[in-house]
Amino acid sequence: MDNNSAAYWKATLSLLTKILVIWFVVSFGAGIIFKPALDSISLGGYPLGFWFAHQGSIYIFIACIFYYARKMGEIDRKFDVHED
């Protein structure tokens, strides 16, 4: 594997790691671990922990999908492996 391929793979894995950490923190952290602390805050009449467990995590996941697509496009262009 040449340096360009290794750098591309490293950038891709770095992005995936960041996205998966966000996914874990939002789904497991906000929905389960931090739920008691978040329930002291109300959003739209519902406790924030409940909101994250049922709706907020979905919005965050969708935002992660769009962020991933944009950043992968940038990485692909940077390493000249993009599709036109």
TrEMBL record:
TM region positions: 12-34, 46-69
Ranges where the Sodium symporter small subunit domain occurs: 6-82
Keyword Membrane: yes
InterPro entries, sorted: Na_symporter_ssu
Pfam family, one: DUF4212
Keyword annotations of the record: Membrane, Transmembrane, Transmembrane helix
Protein's name according to its UniProt entry: DUF4212 domain-containing protein
